[in-house]
Amino acid sequence: MKHSFRDVLSSSSGSLRQKLEEVFKLMLVLWCRQSQANRLVAADPCESDKTVVVRRGNEEFGFRIHGSKPVVVSAIEPDTPAETSGLEVGDIVIAVNGINVLDKTHSEVVKIAHSGSEILELQVARTCDVVASLAHEGGPAALYSGYLWRAAPLRPHHPPRWTRRWFVLKRDNCLYYYKTDSSIHPVGALMLVNYQLTEEDAGRPHGFRLQRGGGTRLQLAADTAEAAARWRAVLAHAIEASNQRDGWLEVTMRNMKLPPSSILRPDCFGYLMKLGSKWKSWAKRYCVLKDACLYFYNDGNSKSAFGMACLHGYRIQTCAPGGKKYAFEVMPTEPKQRHFYFHTESEMDRKRWMAALEYSIDRWMKAG
């Protein structure tokens, strides 16, 4: 069997990435163990070590974890006890109520946390500031960045409300935007495939518009004519590059033709009940999550996917459509983009899928 140079290179890079992830994970474990040893002999506590107390409210603590040996806090829900406890996304959980969980699997840590206690005392190692600062701008992945004004329409036939945001165009030809230039997590992302760029003065000078067909539209404006010209130039180049078949699109289209068991190292997989957009009825689908893309199959033995959703920039939250107890919503940053609704058979499975989706989307944004 002949293999092209691109296939060999792709296989080698995938293997190298997996090994680097394993090395990084091992470094985190060693760092945590060193932190524990330092705590035993040091007179003063290390600034990176925290003890956080979370009290259960409305049957929930309000945070999710991801990974295994060690587990990492992947999400904190708003208006929950976890939000006001001082816990942060990226915290490595070392101990739960005095039990060392550094060598525990994800399911073992969840079992310990839900063992009947109304209060969780978490000993965590805080590395998020270090890791996030490296990932924030994406290093060499960032092509261009700067402040732009973004229009958020309030109602039809009403003037838009303009908000200043920090925009970053990365090498994946995605346009990410943050609240400020010091923010870690983006508030949205736009894949520039099939978009058109036009100049537009929508109540603000130096404006331009990104639009795809008659659907998603993003109105932007710069502070100066020079800045607007630079942004139009780099965005036009990115759109042209996006309309060509790049490496990511090739991988995505290739995955669509594969059976679910052939997608290597998925972020999550299993059955989900999916709400149809046309008939508003629930259908059981086998789903595979990989690099913020969710592939849909009729069942686990299907030869290929019948559909796929690119979830870059999407957000995850619980909901209850049709009174479904274990449902969740996958929301776009722009209201005209499609919403997705799913439900599972148990609360544990819902938490598993929500944590995996948040982790996959967030990781893709940071990796660029």
Automatic annotation (TrEMBL):
Official protein name in the record: PDZ and pleckstrin homology domains 1
Domain PH: 141-362
Gene3D superfamilies in alphabetical order: 2.30.42.10, Pleckstrin-homology domain (PH domain)/Phosphotyrosine-binding domain (PTB)
InterPro entries: PDZ, PDZ_sf, PH-like_dom_sf, PH_domain
Source superkingdom: Eukaryota
Coiled coil: none
Sequence ranges assigned to domain PDZ in this UniProt record: 51-128
